[in-house]
Write a structure and sequence with these properties.
This protein has about 1500 residues and is mainly beta. The chain is built from nine helices and 101 strands. Strands 93, 95, 96, 99, 100 and 101 form a six-stranded mixed β-sheet that branches. Strands 2-9-8-4-5 form a five-stranded mixed β-sheet, with no helix packed on it.
């Protein structure tokens, strides 16, 4: 009875439904068997075996009676065992256990006994046997020569057996053809194993041909559908992105697995069979079926189904593939359209249709662009100029016989989307052409093709088309359709379309520029609200038909003439969401009232607490229910639905109620009660009691584990006894009243509100023996927290048995899973019971153990921990430390990446549970938990951690340091004692009219803000001369003072109150700061007064034009026609050539050829009857330098390359530019050395060029020369290399010019004194005297009418001192009139000067002087010869200019006369007046000078 009562109590704890009577019946049936089996106990150690032997020996000595009692006890124990097994089988049948909780280890098939070969005689049987194991139990198939053995193919010949894991194949009455290689193939989901053996059948000697047929298998064809296929790992719901690629893979077991015979596999998307191609690659074989989509587009989204044909029918698996939009080309642009297809294909017309994309957070779609390209070309052509608003568009103008591809792009306010996937090849062909062909079969063999043209006869002009109607009527266009004429003729046919307003009869052709070959045509230019009629003509080369019958009235925007307006569907109805799995939700809704050719629905979702919606699907879904995948477990979501058709998207439906993502209630039944505890370990033993510990169940079921129940038994017994009837709340317990020296086994069950869970596996036999060692016992309950890719935290509990002294620390060992080599992680014993382990290999699995240490040594190690993989959970987040923005509370918070309804957040400090502590308050909201410090201080410093129960190890930690706490306390104080944050403190600015504005700007102000201005401790309010205001939008508070005087000096303060926040800002305006403000205010006041009349809006400034002319400019305002404008320099008025025009708003004064002479103060005066304004501009100092730099910038940029010019004095380098003046910063360099102006190196320039002359050059002057013009910022350089041949040529030219100059200098010449024309009265004396010069002294000859004049009494010729030559004619007569000349010459050359003499009689009229002659007669007296060359005598008409052309500087003719001194040949003689030179070397020969750039 004791046994029955115990088992009834156990049955109650297990919630068993089996009655006691049924248990007794099963037990009686089991006991009726005569055979008795001794229980098989667990293996014992040597010591345990000795103790068992002593115990049995003692019992034997008791005698026969004791043995009979023992047999009876054993029978009762067997009965109890049978009852226990029956109850356990019943419990297991009631409870569904997940695969990951099973205690069985998965194992691939393995042959314990393999097949062995056989050689038998003909007509004798053969038996093949093998033994195979595996978990789950393998399936064994038999093959003969690679072909499955089919017992039905030869009834009675083959027999297959399977008993207790022993598989057999029996072949009866073998024949020679049975000789082959037989194989047994064992398969489960973990793998395949094969065992092979050869069967040889022989015939008796003389019975026939050789009986050995060899091992060549018979080749028998097997259809793929005859294979046996089992699906293993299946593809799950997948997510892809446009433009990417994805593979859907499903592993399988194929029997037989033949390399040349893959299974027959089909792939479907939304129940439509997929075919292999560039967009879908399919493979089957090698134990897997694979579908690869290499170029993902939203067209690929849908439900994918794998269907495999097997011997038993088909094996199928389906999962959804989501394809999201790729990143838009422009931010905010819509997603790409999808499902682009071409319909109604004709010779030059095709209708393109597509589905609209979903718009969640983007702007609404305003239209679409349709593009086309010809096959073989990469150039896309846009078909429509303006976006079309509906999801179809008629494309016309195609070329017959050519193939095209089409794509579509969506448009919204942000931009254009990415293009859709292009269509397949569409060939423009006449759709009616096939209808005009008739195929006639002759005798069922031959096809005769007859064209309709052959039956029509000879037709030239076609008939009119028929049935003209509108096949597409939309808001933007109408598509006309008609039936081609019959007969139509053999000539190529085209159509002409006319339209008119309904009822008017005013027909107008609409396709004048388009040759139309198809019976389709889109019309776009119809006016809204008007009805039209259409008619069509048929035209060929012979002529045109009559018009067709007009169509019925067609109005754009109606459908089939009805009043139903085409539009998007109405919004869907009520949306209801329900739980599905831990990461998905089932959403269903009511269809819209008005479908309007619905193409599908879009579902949007939004996480609780956020504003942004996200798309749940990216391709319209046709049904009113949808499973939304990829959601975050534990998070709450809201959903809405939109309907879509070719006209766009409907309005959004009403939002669903929020729903938390949790598994459906039906999916959690397997965890209604807790799973089994595990890891039972012995913590301490005193000889009569044992302290045990265990680990809590991995799954608590539907509610929290509230109790544990323990059972124990002797290790050699079958009967379990209860340890506790009252619930144990913790994961450890002491079991009392034990017998010392006895081995015990224990098992534990966990309970919650749903009932008692399954029992744990029995512990290992534990001996009840008092612990007396001095070292501590083992630590226990090893667990993990914060598992990451490279680190984790190991936690454990202190040993119960401490040994001879308290535990002082712990040593932690670690090893990789499967390895026995442990490494110690702590060099010294850790004092606390946790350890952060770092340096792990991500993805590797580890085990740990802990050894306790006291003063006597290191204790025994703990049991090994559960294997842990160094890998963070997806979506793992860390603890966040922060301050509440509203209350100012300091908190730590965690948002869990995974949670369920029974999960709890357990907070710890230094890995000790906090529990109910007055220093913190823990709150939970959804997937988040926050621990708030009530009064944080230094006592709260430490490491805080949080673990989420009933998850796969969600946990995190955060160390609260003193610096972090101080920073958060400062922020907390700022929130609890808020101040109004200021962008700008109190400041001032001077406004027009001299008003002063005091202002500050807050970061944010509420409409309820209050403030006040305090000046010198007195509040100031809006009144006369003071205006106070604020702007909530900008946060500006201001006070404007109209009359700012000395009385306004002082301290200004603004005090602000905004809700709980307040602040103040002050500005001190005293002393120099106030004087500056007052001065600026007075200036602005005067400026305001000045601007009441004509004034300068911009005072004088300078600019430099491209020709280097300096312009003094200014801008004027408030002027009129009467306003006068004057320029002055140093109070001297300047009158420009062009009077200033004040009405233009700008005046300018040009200063050409700017130089130092232009320094001074310039003034501009503007005045009229309203007032006067003056602007001064002082050109001196830095201003002058700035002008010169501006000129240098333009001139330097315009500088030409250096030009070589030879002169008699030396070699000259010249640089032409827009303008040059000596004030410019110009530097000449020779071989990088600066050149200073000297007698050897002369530097100068003109207005158009700068030059440098090398006087008397020598070889030292060879090298590179550079001119640098600096404008203060940039240096403009030009370089000339004067070396080599360039120097040689220049030097030779210089020597030639020098010799020519010397000859010119020393030749004979008339220096001055002779007139051009002389008019004299007869009887007067004529004296022609001149000064001559030459080295050596020249010879002088006089001529009259080209005849030399000899010296006579009448004509006296003299030459005195080698300088003065004269000819005196006494008492001239008319015969003396004529042309006189003097010839002066020496060995270097000479000069010939002519004088015309006219003699008139007394009383005659004075003859008119010729050009260059004086109007008055010469003096009658004959002057005396001059005695000095400096004062030559002039007795007749004055001479010409004193500067002959032959002495000009050797520069180009266009070069103006230089202002700077130019080197010229020095001569002790005056400059000649005129004359014709004698032949001398020419001076016009110069080195070639290129034209100026």
């Amino acid at each position: 009875m004791e046994c029955v009562c115990c088992k009834q109590q156990t049955a109650v704890r297990k919630s068993s439904s089996t009655s006691v009577s049924q248990v007794h019946a099963q037990a009686t049936e089991a006991m009726a068997e005569q055979a008795y089996t001794i229980p098989v106990f667990r293996q014992r150690t040597a010591d345990e075996g000795t103790e068992e032997y002593l115990r049995v020996s003692t019992n034997v000595e008791k005698g026969l009676t004791v043995i009979q009692d023992e047999i009876h006890r054993m029978r009762m124990a067997t009965k109890a065992q049978v009852e226990s097994l029956a109850i356990q089988r019943e419990v297991k049948s009631m409870m569904y256990r997940r695969a990951d909780l099973t205690d069985e280890i998965p194992k691939m098939p393995d042959f314990l006994v393999a097949l062995r070969p056989h050689t038998v005689w003909e007509k004798t049987p053969v038996r093949l046997f093998c033994t195979v194991q595996g978990n789950p139990r393998p399936i064994v198939k038999w093959y003969k020569g690679g072909v499955p053995v089919d017992p039905l193919s030869a009834p009675g010949k083959y027999k297959m057996e399977n008993k207790y894991g022993v598989h057999g194949l029996i072949i009866s009455r073998c024949v020679v053809s049975d000789t082959a290689e037989y194989s047994a193939v064992a398969t489960n989901q973990h793998g395949t194993a094969t065992s092979k053996a050869t069967v040889t059948v022989k015939r008796p000697s003389g019975a026939g041909e050789s009986s050995y047929l060899g091992l060549v298998p018979r080749l028998t064809q097997i259809h793929p559908s005859k294979l046996e296929v089992s699906l293993l790992d299946r593809f799950s719901v997948s997510f892809g992105v446009e433009g990417g690629s994805i593979s859907l893979v499903c592993s399988m077991v194929v029997v037989p697995d033949l390399p040349n015979l893959p299974p027959l596999v089909q792939w479907f998307r939304d129940d439509k069979l997929l075919t292999p191609g560039q967009l879908a690659e399919m493979t089957a074989g090698g134990g897997a079926a694979r579908l690869t989509l290499p170029h993902l587009a939203k067209d690929d989204e849908g439900l994918y189904t794998l269907r495999i044909f097997t011997q038993d029918g088909t094996a199928e698996h389906s999962a959804y593939l989501f394809v999201s939009d790729a990143a838009p080309s422009v931010a905010g642009a819509p997603g790409a359209p999808m499902s682009v297809k071409a319909y109604d294909v004709n010779a030059d017309y095709v209708l393109v249709a597509w589905k609209p994309p979903n718009t969640v957070n983007e702007a609404p779609i305003t239209g679409y662009f349709v593009d086309r390209r010809e096959a073989g070309s990469d150039a896309w052509v846009q078909c429509n100029d303006a976006p079309v608003k509906v999801c179809k568009y008629p494309v016309h103008g195609l070329k017959e016989g050519r193939s095209y591809h089409f794509r579509v792009r969506a448009v919204n306010a942000a931009g254009v989307s990415r293009p859709s996937r292009e269509t397949g090849r569409v060939t423009a062909l006449d759709a009616a052409e096939d209808e005009r062909l008739q195929v006639i079969k002759i005798e069922g063999k031959y096809d005769v093709v007859i064209k309709q043209d052959d039956l029509e006869g000879h037709v030239t002009i076609p008939l009119a088309p028929t049935d003209v109607h509108a096949s597409e009527v939309l808001r933007s266009y109408v598509v006309l359709s008609w039936t081609p004429p019959s007969p139509r003729g053999r000539a190529p046919l085209c159509y002409v379309i006319e339209k008119c307003l309904a009822g008017t009869g005013a027909w107008q052709r609409i396709n004048a520029a388009v040759a139309l070959h198809s019976p389709r045509f889109p019309v776009f230019d119809l006016q809204d609200g008007l009805k039209y009629e259409f008619r069509v003509y048929s035209v060929n080369r012979h002529g045109a038909s009559g018009p067709s019958e007009p169509s019925g009235p067609v109005q754009k925007g109606e459908e089939d003439g009805k009043d139903h307006v085409i539009s998007a569907p109405s919004a869907p109805g009520q949306v209801v969401s329900t739980r599905n799995t831990k990461s998905s939700v089932f959403v269903q809704w009511e269809p819209p009232k008005h479908l309007n050719n619905l193409v599908g629905y879009y579902i949007d979702g939004r996480a609780a607490g956020t504003k942004d919606w996200f798309p749940c699907n990216h391709k319209p879904f046709k049904h009113c229910r949808f499973v939304v995948h990829g959601l975050t477990p534990g998070e709450s979501y809201t959903f809405r639905v939109q309907a879509a058709n070719v006209f766009g998207l409907s309005e959004e439906s009403q939002e669903s109620s929020p729903i938390s993502v949790e598994p459906a209630l039906g999916l959690g039944v397997e965890y209604a009660s807790p799973s089994a505890p595990f890891g039972i370990t012995l913590l301490s033993c005193d000889g009569s009691s044992m302290t045990l510990a265990w680990k809590s169940p991995k799954h608590c079921g539907g509610s929290k584990v509230t109790a544990y129940y323990l059972d124990h038994r002797h290790a050699d017994a079958l009967l379990w006894r209860e340890v506790n009837q009252e619930a144990v709340r913790e994961e450890h317990c002491s079991v009392d009243n034990l017998t010392e020296g006895t081995f015990y086994e224990f098992k534990i069950q966990a309970a919650n509100m749903a009932g008692v869970g399954v029992a744990s596996a029995p512990s290992a036999p534990l001996k009840c023996e008092a612990w007396t060692m001095e070292e501590p016992g083992p630590a226990y309950d090893l667990s993990f927290s914060e598992v990451r890719g490279r680190s984790l935290v190991l936690l454990w509990k202190a040993p119960v048995y401490t040994g001879a002294g308290p535990v002082t620390g712990y040593l932690v060992d670690m090893a990789k899973k499967g390895s026995s080599e442990f490494i110690t992680l702590t060099q010294e014993a850790e004092s606390h019971r946790y350890l952060q382990v770092s340096g792990l290999e991500e993805g590797e699995t580890y085990v740990f153990r802990v050894r306790s240490v006291n003063s006597r040594g290191v204790g025994r190690p703990s049991d090994l921990s559960e294997p842990v993989c160094a890998k963070a959970l997806p979506g793992t987040q860390e603890i966040v430390a922060g301050v509440d923005e509203v209350t100012g509370d300091v908190f730590l918070s965690l948002e869990a990446c995974e949670i369920c309804e029974t999960s709890k957040f357990v907070w710890s400090k230094n890995y000790k549970a906090i529990g109910d502590c007055p220093r913190v308050v823990v709150t939970e909201t959804g997937r988040s938990s926050r621990m708030t410090f009530t009064n944080p201080d230094k006592d709260d410093l430490g490491r805080y951690s949080v673990a989420v129960t009933d998850t796969d190890g969600v946990s995190s930690s955060q160390t609260l340091t003193e610096d972090a706490l101080n920073a958060m306390l400062e922020l907390s104080y700022a929130i609890r004692h808020p101040v109004v944050p200021l962008k700008h403190g109190l400041n001032y600015e001077i406004l027009e009219k001299g008003h002063v504005r005091f202002w500050l700007q807050a970061v944010k102000l509420s409409p309820a803000v209050s403030y006040r201005f305090i000046v010198n401790d007195k509040e100031v309010k809006t009144g006369e001369g003071i205006k106070i205001s604020h702007d909530v939008a900008t946060g500006v508070i201001q006070m404007t003072v109209d009359h700012f005087t000395r009385a306004n000096e002082g301290t200004y303060t603004v005090q602000i109150h905004d809700g709980k926040a307040k602040t103040q800002s002050s500005l001190v305006l005293v002393g120099d700061v106030f004087k500056v403000a007052l001065k600026e205010a007075e200036f602005q006041r005067k400026e305001h007064i000045r601007k009441q009349g004509p004034h300068f809006s911009e005072y004088l400034y300078f600019t430099v034009r491209d020709d280097c002319t300096v312009m003094l400019a200014c801008k004027v305002a408030n002027v009129k026609k009467e306003t006068s404008f004057h320029w002055y320099k140093e109070d001297d008025e300047i009158v420009p050539e062009t009077p200033p025009n004040v009405m233009s708003g700008a005046c300018a004064l040009p200063i050409p050829l700017f130089s130092r002479k232009d320094q001074g103060v310039f003034k501009a005066v503007l005045s009229d009857d309203r007032g006067k304004d003056t602007s001064l501009f002082d050109i001196s100092g830095n201003v002058f330098d700035n002008i010169i730099n501006a000129i240098a910038q333009i001139a330097g940029a315009s500088a030409s390359e250096l030009v070589l010019q030879c002169t008699p004095e030396g070699i000259r380098l010249q640089c032409y530019m827009n303008y040059y003046t000596e004030e410019m910063k110009t530097v000449w360099k020779h071989k990088e050395s600066k050149i200073a102006s000297s007698e050897k190196m002369r530097i100068g320039g003109t207005a158009e060029m700068a030059w440098m002359q090398i006087c008397d050059p020598s070889d030292k002057e060879k090298g590179s020369y550079t001119i640098e013009v600096s404008d203060g910022v940039q240096t403009h350089a030009r370089t000339f290399d004067l070396s080599g041949q360039a120097y040689t040529d220049a030097y030779e030219e210089y020597l030639r010019l020098k010799a020519a100059a010397f000859a010119e200098k020393n030749r004979g010449r008339v220096v001055g004194g002779l007139p051009d024309v002389v008019t004299i009265m007869e009887e007067k004396s004529l004296s022609l005297t001149c000064t001559v010069w030459g080295e050596p002294t020249p010879e002088v000859s006089w001529f009259k009418n080209e005849q030399e004049v000899a010296s006579t009494e009448h004509t006296k010729v003299t030459f005195e001192g080698g300088k003065f030559a004269s000819m005196v004619i006494t008492k001239v007569t008319p015969d003396d009139s004529g042309k006189y000349s003097i010839n002066v010459r020496n060995k270097y050359g000479g000069e010939f000067v002519e004088i015309t003499v006219s003699v008139y009689k007394h009383g005659e009229k004075l003859p008119e002087p010729k050009l260059g002659q004086p109007k008055a007669p010469a003096a009658a007296a004959t002057p005396a010869p001059p005695k000095s060359p400096a004062t030559p005598t002039k007795t007749a008409t004055p001479s010409k200019s004193q500067t002959p052309a032959s002495m000009k500087s050797p520069t180009p003719a266009s070069t103006p006369v230089p202002k700077s001194p130019t080197p010229t040949p020095k001569s002790p003689t005056p400059t000649q007046s005129r004359g014709v030179k004698s032949p001398t070397p020419t001076r016009s020969m110069k080195s070639p000078t290129p034209p100026r750039k």
